[in-house]
Amino acid sequence: MDLYLPIANLSVNALVIIALGLGVGLLSGMFGVGGGFLTTPLLIFYGIPPTVAAASAASQVTGASVSGMLAHSRRKGVDYHIGGVMVAGGVLGSLIGAWLFEVLRATGLIDTVIAILYVLMLGSIGGLMLKESVDSIRVTKGHRPAPARRRRHHPLIAALPMRWRFYRSGLYISPLAPLILGVLTGILTMLLGVGGGFILIPAMLYLLGMSTQVVVGTSLFQIVFTTAAATMVHATTTKAVDIVLAVLLLLGSVAGAQIGSRLAQKMRPEYLRLALALLVLIVAIRMGLGLAWRPGELYSVEAA
Fold it and tell me: Cys-Cys with 18: which of 94, 200, 207, 252 at CB 3.0–4.6 Å?
């Protein structure tokens, strides 16, 4: 079942794109990540231009995150107070990211920059997640002692001025910390089409010191509004959002997020993190090879 994508200017198999959205939606519900960090590379592998893949993935992440966020909200797993601060930062970051996107596209470097950023980020984050998950499994099986308990939030966070109380998360910290985190997420959303959950989750746990009960839901809450803002900015400035591609992805991801949120309650978290880490590293390696491999023929001519 082939469909033509007007912005990407090519035909795709609709069922393949829907299946891709379903898989990414599962990740969204299980881990609290928007899934864009996998959607964009997989679309690029399929042949979608990187700029269109990044812009369209942001809109797909919105739908997947809405579905997952509602599921967590019903279980009181969302801190709307700290999430609202991160959303404000995310909208500001989206505007900054739109300017960077246009500058890079004007210089002809946007496709290369997207690929390099993905390799660096996925490789580093996947490696850290792999180490952390393996350590957790070893502690669970008794092969090593549990690490010493650390303070709730990072010393740099504790040093910031103007503290607020975030009751649902059990925090008393400066709003500047979640605001800056939101700005960085907004920039990444514009440039790479990611929701930023794969950065938000560890940052909220290990930097802000948020309660684990609200981390996933709050991450999805922030992602919903940041990716929605990024989609609007892309649609009005870069004109790179392919609505047909976005709808196909949404059809799969909304259903996948609901299934993923249920699976997350039944599976052990350390094994979930291990699976995600391996998946992230595989995608990073594939993108790195794509940058380094030299094609057999630099140019090709096909008969009409």
Answer: 252
Rounded-to-integer distance, Cα 174 and Cα 9, Å: 47
Tokens for 24? Answer: 């990414």
Confidence (pTM): 0.68
8 Å CB contact between 73 and 63 = no
Q: What is the pLDDT of residues 168-202, one digit of tens each?
A: 777 888 888 889 888 988 888 777 766 666 677 77
